[in-house]
Amino acid sequence: MSSFLIQTSSRLRQALARVREAVETHPGRVAAGVGGVLLLSSVSAFALVEYGPQPPLPAPSLVQQAVHIDLSSQVQALENAPRLLYTTAFVQGADSAASLLRRLQVTDPSQLRALARDRNLQELLRLHGTMVSAEVDSLGTLKSLSAALPDPESHAGHAGSEDVTWRELSIRARADGGFDDQVRVQQAQAQTRVASAVVRSSLFGAADAAGVPDQVASQLVGLFGGEVDFRRDLRPGDRFTVAWRVYTAGNRVVRVGRILAAQVSVDGHDHSAVWFDPSGHPQAAAYYAPDGSSLSRAFLLSPLPYDRLTSGYGWRISPIFHKPEFHKGIDLAIPVGTPVRTIADGRVVYAGWGTGYGKYVKVEHPGGFATIYSHLSRFEVHVGEQVKQGEVVALSGNTGWSTGPHLYFQFFVHGQPVNPLSIARYTPKGTHLPDGLRAQFLASTAPRTRLLALMPRESDVAEAGSPAPKG
Predict the structure, then answer these.
(1) Domain for residue 23, yes or no?
(2) What pLDDT, on the 0 to 100 scale, is given for residue 149?
(3) How far apart are CA 105 and CA 111, in angstroms?
């Protein structure tokens, strides 16, 4: 027995020695073998758990309940409910209450008749270019209307005023079919805006591209109307820079003010102007050149802000009678309803109908001069009325012997017709700035002229065809 134990012990020692040698020589193989054994043990355990006896699951139960919802009445109510539209339109020269309201999508006949008699709406129709907002339902019924009206007590035209008032018109429909008008006086803040543009096709096209309002472009024509004939002199590549005043409430422009400074470059020649309104000297308030010389002239070169010459002064073949005649004025093509301005101070001596002329206005000016404006659609003055240079005397039209909308403009010197394109020779400049105001003039206008100098000159300026925001 003892020899058996001795042999067994010897064999165990040899086996342990071999195991130790194997572990020391091949540790990776030994670790893999041990891992395999453990993995098989896990699988076996998993198999025992997966296929062992399981507890019984509870029997499922299902509950059902029928719900009946009738949405037809609600759907029908939504279908029948008028939907609200929010519309805007601008007052145009030939607008009536009905035409303005129809552009705002108001079609209810009874409302159109009632609003045609509204006093505030009639005042609004005289404010050409004013934006009107309306709330209208899908049946064409007006719910509310709002617009900005000028305040009669406001000093909006005073370039030095920083705070001006305006009136907010609100018209609301009542349940009984009537309307409630409310006019509230509001405060507006003054801002100065500057723009520069290169002319590619026309002054107004360049102004649109640069975001300059039409009212400012028209002022520009009137301001330099004694020096530049914008109909004949302006060429592609000419440019202008202008600083003007606007009056705002929040982000809304409620009124476009006057030009503060401007420069027009025509054929390489610069024409500049600044507004000067000295305190205590209202008689000196005017536009001047930067050196203080006057820009005012006896006559404007044109009664229109823009036009197209279709028939000049002199002999021609009559488009009505198709035979030679001497044309004693010029024909300027212009859309119906364009404001027609008197070119100089004077007195209205006729406003009525004339054979061939249609509706026309005649104004006599100091010094033996007179002008006639023909083929009009509406008068803005009456006989005997004194008018100032640039004042609107009528709206253009197509009345009388006319083959299309245009203005027939005549200029008389001591009763004899003269070519209106030669008006420049009859336009001496006005008086210069009073010497006692020169220091105040330079101090007041220097910041405005610097604004013009800060604008880019060539490639960075706005050009026609490159849209920019207006305002």
Answers:
(1) no
(2) 76
(3) 12
How many domains is the chain partitioned into structurally? Answer: 3
Q: How far apart are CA 82 and CA 136, in angstroms?
A: 9
CATH number of the domain encompassing residue 313? 2.70.70.10
- Is residue 314 located within the same domain as residue 420? yes
- Write out pLDDT tens, residues 385-436: 999 888 999 999 999 999 899 999 999 999 999 999 888 777 666 667 777 8
More confident site: 59 or 190? 190
Of all residues in the chain, the percent with pLDDT exceeding 70 is 78
Among the listed residues 346, 386, 341, 351, the one whose alpha carbon sits nearest the alpha carbon of residue 368: 346
Same domain, 422 and 440: no
Q: Can you give the pLDDT at residue 163?
A: 57
Asked whether residue 69 is assigned to any structural domain, the reply reads: no
> In this structure, is residue 28 part of a structural domain?
no
Give the Å distances, CA to CA, from 456 to 198, 229, 424: 11, 25, 32
Predicted confidence at residue 383, as pLDDT, reads 95
Residue 192 CA to residue 243 CA, distance in Å, equals 7
Q: Is residue 459 part of a domain?
A: yes
How far, in whole angstroms, is CA 114 from its chain's centroid?
Answer: 31
Domain holding 281: CATH number? 3.10.450.350
pLDDT of res. 39? 47
Please write the tens of the pLDDT for every residue from 106-125. Answer: 999 999 999 998 988 998 88
pTM exceeding 0.90: no
358 shares its domain with 292: no
- For residue 318, give its domain range: 308-426
Average pLDDT over residues 211-231: 82
